[in-house]
Design a protein that fits this description.
The chain has 5 helices and 12 strands. With about 210 residues, it is an alpha+beta fold. Strands 2-3-4-1-5-8-7-6 form an 8-stranded mixed sheet. The protein has a 4-stranded mixed sheet with strand order 10-9-11-12, with helices on one face. It starts with a strand and ends with a strand.
C-alpha cells in the first residue's frame, strides 16, 4: 500500500482552485467529475502522488447517499468559510480489502468507481465522513487507466511529509504496519499535518 494523495475540500470549486493555485504557484493540471458521488475535483501533481481539491457539484444529481469526505456535513462546510481545508488522505494498493477491513467505522462492501478511462475499487465509509477524524485514509486500488499523477504535468510540487496524530493512533499502526514513505504516525491530539515543497518555498497545512 502506498501514499496516493491528499484531499482538500471547499464549497465552490472555482473559488477553491483560485485560492490553492495562488498558494502553490500553479493552477491545477487536471479536473474531473464524480457522478457517483455528486462531486467534482481539481488535481495538482506531486510526482508519484497528487493533491485533490473536491467540492459538491451543484449541477449534478444528488447521489442518494452521503457524499464522501463529509461534504454534506454543515460543520464541514462551515470550515471552508476561510477557503479550502485539508480533510484526509488516501492510500492505494492491492491490499485494499485488508486495510478497509480494519477500519474503526462501518465501510460496507467494496465499490468500483469510474471516471473517463479510470476505474478503481474504493472503500467509502457508509456515513460519508472519514474515520478517526480524517486520520484513517480513503482506501483504494487503481484498476484501469493511467494513474492520475502520471497523466498530470509536473508542476514542481512535492510532498515533504504527512504527519498523522491521534489518541488512538495504535489502531492505525496495527492496520498499516510500517507506514508508507513520507507518512509518520504519532500519539496525541487528532491532527493531520501536510508539508509540501513548492517553487515559492515549503507550505504546511493542518486539519483539526
Amino acid at each position: 500500500m502506498k501514499f496516493d494523495h491528499v484531499i482538500f475540500g471547499c464549497t465552490d470549486l472555482d473559488v477553491g482552485i483560485a485560492a490553492l493555485g495562488t498558494e502553490f504557484g500553479a493552477p491545477p493540471s487536471g479536473r474531473g467529475v464524480h457522478r457517483m458521488m455528486g462531486t467534482h475535483n481539481a488535481l495538482w501533481n506531486m510526482g508519484d502522488a497528487y493533491i485533490e481539491l473536491v467540492a459538491i457539484d451543484l449541477a449534478a444529481a444528488h447521489p442518494g447517499r452521503p457524499r464522501w469526505f463529509g461534504l454534506d456535513d454543515p460543520d464541514v462546510q462551515a470550515r471552508f468559510g476561510a477557503g479550502p481545508r485539508l480533510l484526509t488522505w488516501a492510500l492505494a494498493g492491492a491490499e485494499v480489502e485488508r486495510v478497509a477491513g480494519g477500519a474503526p467505522m462501518p465501510m460496507g462492501s467494496m465499490e468500483v468507481f469510474s471516471r473517463d478511462d479510470l476505474k478503481w475499487r474504493v472503500a467509502v465509509p457508509q456515513a460519508g465522513t472519514p474515520g478517526m477524524d480524517g486520520i484513517f485514509p480513503l482506501t483504494l486500488d487503481w484498476l484501469e487507466g493511467q494513474h492520475p499523477a502520471a497523466r498530470l504535468g509536473d508542476q514542481g510540487l512535492r510532498c515533504r511529509s504527512l504527519a498523522l496524530s491521534h489518541p488512538e493512533i495504535e489502531h492505525l499502526k496495527n492496520v498499516l504496519g510500517d507506514p508508507p514513505d513520507r507518512v509518520s504516525l504519532h500519539h496525541g491530539p487528532a491532527q493531520i499535518a501536510f508539508t509540501i515543497d513548492t517553487a515559492k518555498g515549503a507550505l504546511r497545512y493542518t486539519a483539526f
